[in-house]
From TrEMBL:
Residues 438-879 form the TonB-dependent receptor-like beta-barrel domain. It comes from the Bacteria. Residues 1-18 form the signal peptide. It comes from Zhouia amylolytica AD3. Residues 275-351 form the TonB-dependent receptor plug domain. This is Putative TonB-dependent outer membrane receptor protein. GO terms for molecular function: siderophore uptake transmembrane transporter activity. The lineage of its organism: Bacteria, Pseudomonadati, Bacteroidota, Flavobacteriia, Flavobacteriales. InterPro entries: Beta-barrel_TonB, Beta-barrel_TonB_sf, CarboxyPept-like_regulatory, Plug_dom, Plug_dom_sf, TonB-dep_rcpt-like.
Length: 918
């Protein structure tokens, strides 16, 4: 019996010992808060927690553990928090951010002797805070950043965040974030985001920007973390406010040939009929011109009008103007920024040879209702923005319309009285920020023009586009953006001269685009940008149908065309050393012309015409009829000769798979687009540029001189008298040849002081060469000849003088060489008929163009507490009444050839515009 009792006692002791030393536990947590989870752990184990309830997050926990040790369980439930823990005996002590050490690291005393400037403090060393320092200044708050990890081997940590306007909720760009004791700083980007690298420890972070409250925040850095700030506007009475956060960007940026349009500044530039116009201001910059005042296209560095990619919130806009280019179709009140790449084109962009107009609408105000309005002699403009969810989402709507018809009705000319000229455009944008990591933006835009000037035909055209983007920050080094867009352009002509012959003509083109873009900061030397894109083209080349039941015109339609264009791209902004930086990019594009389609083949070495047709090939729906593609290289470099003096060089190669069909000397709204196919090759080009950039007088003056040389291949031109519209076989009417362009651009700019503005001058040449063994496909005997838009000299002076804080004068002077034209130089008789003999193509020029515009700008009073702020603009366009010819044409009258010239604005045009901002 004694032995049995001894055995039982032994088993009880073993059981009690086992229970005492149990180390693995099982738990099921489902939608419970932290405090409940800790109490459940206490009840099931012999451990006791010590903590402050304020430290615990109120979010719910859902987790499952089976036979896990206590450290694993605690690591998992505290993983997404700033809570650390320390276990001693049966006690678990929780801490916020910091780690409790039971002994100091061996290197601790050695680290204390190292100067903080070396930035080599071991990450596992504890951080000691002085409570007295926290109360040294009541205006300085202390914020703990990150969660300490004693096993971390990092020497620096990322402190990042977003700085917003506390009143409006809008991000604050170009704000300095400083850590003076470490001589470190960062600048917020357009989204208010900043990032700064700091070692573990205690630091004082300061903000600095004109017009914004400056604050100091004490941070205790344990690990990577966020510090988001909300700042008040700081209204101060200053003699002059100068914002020069990007004053040295022209010297510092690696890429060449970038023009940035300051949207707010264009209100002081006198323009026709008082309309603020982003694109017209762009033409005052070197290297960007128009064929004439009535042209809807733009020529960039000797390129054709169809060689510019014009984007509105990443969606293509095919015709960005109203009424033949007199007005812009882009609303200045909703526009945020406009960057024009005419030299180094980033690898994410493709499909055009000459330039990219990257225009962004601004985000809507997420904090309060605001808006802007203007009233001019022929147009009105209204923009309103309102929060949907305060500080998270907002909606902006802008609308413009013309009311010029009433002016036409007042004119004495009978033909003009019966004319029509109207347009309108509407844009809306929605932006929503889900978190600091995710936001979405969506834009919808529609514009429409209708006009009939002394004509029996009614012309109309419209743009329709939609775009959406999703931006996501994966971590402090990587962010991605997904873009989806749909663009459509169409025109229509109604002919009403004869009831039996009335008809309607139509055309449309659309494209659907998808792009994913990644930005990755690899390290302090490399910034990577990569992604892929694809777009689907759909083109209705033209259709004709009778207008009215009595019309005898037959229906006719050219078969629809389809094409797909895809690309992969990668670029690296590589900082080789403090002076030399390189941005190298590669883009591989691939294009396919798709069925359903019929494609002719022609005899090799013979002109393409009806007599040389060999066969007609048929392709089924979405079958590839022809494909093209190849690599595109984008390289740009910058070298600092001095801190305010740099030299840059770049090389670009590009493909373009779509062409504009226009045999006019200037582009018009009824020009059509044609996809590359079996018989029309894509355009190709390369361009090299070299420039010097210098800032003077503490960035008050910017100076740049840049030269370029460009060669192109398979550029589209047309045979004399070509019939392009409603032609099923356009390849028989076109020619493809070589092009070259070169030039030098000079820009001197002053943004500060009472007198500011810029002086721009460019010397540029642009030539084509159409050579063939067949005379009908050869122009000017196969030699290079000037393009329609070749204007060697182009000079612009834009200035604004501020007389007082409310009154300023502005002036705009333009001089351009007259563009080339082809003149009749004689006549001859053939078989008893007289014919006109013309000179070589573009052998002569129309008279030079020059114009002076003057304006007076009157600001309302600058009271802060005011319902609305007003602005008056009084301007005179073409003060000198210069009769600048838009075009020159010839008419045979009674056997005599007579020359005429047409002008758009041959007299001074005065304007008064009232603007209101609330």
């Amino acid at each position: 019996m004694k032995k049995v009792f001894t055995i039982l006692l032994f088993l009880v002791c073993v059981l009690a010992y086992t229970q005492e030393k149990k180390t693995n536990w099982s738990f099921e947590f489902e939608n419970i808060n932290f405090e409940t989870a800790l109490l459940e752990i206490e009840n099931k184990t012999n451990y006791k927690f010590y903590f402050l309830k304020d430290w615990l997050d109120q979010k719910q926990i859902t987790a499952s553990f089976k036979d896990e040790n206590l450290e694993t369980i605690l690591d998992e439930i505290f993983k997404e928090t700033t809570i650390n823990y320390f276990i001693r005996d049966q006690r678990i002590i929780l801490t916020q951010n910091s780690v409790i050490y039971n002994k100091l690291p061996e290197s601790f005393y050695r680290n204390q002797s190292i100067s903080s400037e070396t930035n080599t403090q071991e990450a596992s060393a504890p951080i000691f805070t002085d409570d007295q320092s926290k109360s040294a200044s009541n205006s300085i708050t202390t914020v703990k950043i990150g969660k300490a990890n004693k096993n971390s081997n990092k020497t620096t940590y990322s402190v990042s965040g977003v700085v917003k306007n506390k009143t409006t909720g809008e991000p604050i760009p170009n704000l300095g974030v400083l850590v003076k004791e470490k001589n470190l700083s960062a600048i917020t980007d357009d989204n208010g985001f900043y990032e700064i690298k700091l070692p573990a420890g205690i630091f004082l972070i300061e903000t600095s920007a004109l017009g914004v409250q400056s604050i100091k925040t004490r941070v205790v850095v344990y690990n990577d973390g966020e510090l988001n700030l909300q700042l008040q506007e700081d209204h101060q009475l200053l003699d002059e406010v100068v914002v020069n956060a990007e004053a040295d960007k022209n010297v510092e940026k690696v890429i060449t040939g970038v023009t940035k349009i300051e949207i707010e500044g264009i209100k002081n530039i006198p323009l026709v009929l008082g309309e603020r116009d982003i694109l017209k201001v762009a033409t005052t910059m070197p290297g960007i011109t128009k064929t004439g005042e009535g042209s809807s296209g733009y020529n960039v560095r000797g390129g054709k009008e169809d060689q510019n990619l014009i984007l509105l919130d990443n969606a293509v806009i095919y015709n960005p103007v109203h009424f033949f280019g007199i007005f812009s179709a882009l609303n200045p009140f909703t526009s945020g920024e406009a960057n024009i790449y005419k030299g180094s084109i980033p690898s994410q962009f493709g499909g055009r040879l000459s330039s990219v107009f990257d225009i962004k609408t601004r985000d809507a105000n997420t904090n309060k209702v605001s808006g802007e309005a203007s009233l001019g002699p022929v147009t009105g403009n209204l923009m309103i923005e309102t929060p949907i969810v305060k500080e998270k989402s907002a909606l902006m709507v802008g609308a413009r319309a013309s009311y010029s018809d009433w002016i036409l009705k007042k004119l004495e000319e009978e033909n003009l009285k019966n004319s029509e000229a109207t347009f309108y455009d509407v844009i809306t944008k929605y932006n929503h920020r889900f978190s600091e990591k995710d936001n979405i933006k969506a834009t919808a835009y529609f514009s429409k023009d209708r006009f009939s000037i002394t004509s029996d035909s009614l012309y109309s055209y419209n743009n329709l586009l939609f775009s959406a983007e999703w931006n996501h920050n994966y971590n402090d080094k990587t962010e991605g953006s997904l873009y989806v867009s749909q663009s459509n352009y169409e025109f229509n002509i109604e002919y009403n001269e004869n009831e039996n012959r009335d008809f309607e003509l139509g055309y449309d083109i659309s494209e659907t685009d998808l792009k994913y873009l990644m930005n990755h900061n690899l390290n302090s030397k490399h910034d990577l940008q990569y992604g892929l894109s694809g777009k689907l083209y759909s083109v209705l080349p033209g259709n004709q149908k009778p207008l009215g039941d009595d019309s005898i015109v037959e229906r006719f339609s050219v078969p629809r065309e389809k094409g797909i264009e895809t690309a992969l791209f990668l670029s690296d902004n590589f900082e080789i050393n403090d002076k030399f930086s390189l941005e190298a990019g590669l883009r591989y594009s691939w294009y396919a012309f798709l069925g359903e389609t019929q494609q002719r083949t022609y005899e090799n070495g013979k002109p393409k015409n009806e007599e040389t047709v060999v066969d007609t090939l048929n392709y089924g729906n979405n079958e590839i009829a022809k494909n093209y593609g190849g690599p595109e290289f984008r390289v740009s470099s910058r070298y600092f000769l001095k801190p305010d003096l740099s030299v840059k060089a770049s090389f670009n190669s590009t493909y373009q798979y779509i062409h504009m069909l226009s045999n006019n000397t200037t582009v018009s709204p009824i020009d059509t687009w044609k996809l590359s196919d079996l018989n029309i090759k894509p355009q190709k080009a390369w361009m090299a540029s070299l420039g010097v950039y210098k800032n003077f007088d503490e960035n008050t003056y910017e100076l740049s001189i840049e030269g370029y040389y460009k060669k192109s291949k398979d550029i589209l031109d047309f045979k004399v008298g070509a019939e392009l519209f409603l032609n099923e076989h356009v390849e028989t009417e076109v020619l493809q040849g070589l092009g070259k362009a070169y030039g030098v651009e000079f820009l001197l700019k002053k943004d500060e002081g009472r007198l500011n503005g810029w002086v721009g001058y460019s010397y540029s040449r642009s030539f084509f060469k159409l050579d063939s063994q067949h005379a009908e496909e050869r122009v000017n005997n196969g030699a290079y000849f000037p393009s329609n838009y070749d204007k060697p000299h182009n000079f612009n002076l834009v200035s604004n003088y501020r007389l007082t804080k409310r009154y300023s004068f502005s002036a705009n002077f333009v001089y351009q060489t007259g563009r080339p034209v082809t003149f009749p130089v004689g006549e001859y008789e053939y078989q008893d008929a007289k014919y006109v003999y013309y000179s070589n193509r573009n052998q002569y020029r129309i008279p030079d163009y020059f114009r002076l515009d003057l304006g007076l700008n009157i600001e309302g009073n600058h009271k802060i507490k005011k319902l609305a702020h007003s602005f008056w603009n009084i301007s005179v366009y073409n003060v000198l009444g210069r009769n600048n010819p838009y075009s020159v044409f010839f008419v045979t009258d009674s056997g005599e050839i007579k020359a005429y010239k047409s002008s758009i604005f041959a007299i001074p045009v005065p304007t008064i515009t009232y603007n209101l901002k609330f």
